[in-house]
Amino acid sequence: MNAVRQELRRLQVFAREHIPVAAAMQVEFLAYGAGTLTLRAPLARNVNHHGTAFGGSQYALAAIGGWGLAKLALAEAGMRGDAVIHDARATYRQPVTADLLLECRALDAGRCIANCRKHGRGTLRIRARIDTEAGAAMVFEGKFFVRLGEGGDG
Questions:
Q1: Inter-residue contact 148 to 81 (CB < 8 Å)
Q2: 3-class DSSP state of 154
């Protein structure tokens, strides 16, 4: 198992053990590369009364993705720390009728890491989206506070 897959597995286990909604949603950390993290959650665990993906689950998946991106950016820079969501906005464009597949991209990881090195903290802006065959179903933009330190096991 390569280092990226090991780190994704570690983050998934930590998230499911310490973020109750991640366990309930059955969040999976699928892939990471070039500043992009891919997560999945099964529709069956995140469905609303219309038979489509619950908007709150889509939002939570993006928030978990932003947290995961921050952890991965720190790890790549040889640092440990944690992140909390500060500000975010989601736009829902169409219903999701299949498993939620989210791509989450860091917009300014280099600046965040530089600030962490200099000040012990920084902010990471992210953009995430869930697509369907017809295009973007949900678009999420968020900002996370990142702070160096132990940050737990996650």
A1: yes
A2: coil
How sure is the predictor about 154, in pLDDT bands with cuts at 50, 70 and 90? Answer: low
The alpha helices in the chain, defined as continuous H runs, are 3-18, 20-25, 55-76, 109-119
Strand partners for 126: 106, 142
77 forms beta bridges with none
Q: How far is CA 70 from the centre of its chain?
A: 8
DSSP helix/strand/coil, 34: coil
Buried b (16+ CB within 10 A) or exposed e, 57-87: bbbbbbbbbbbbbbbbbbbebebebbbebee
The SS3 call for residue 88 is strand
Predicted TM-score of the model (pTM): 0.95
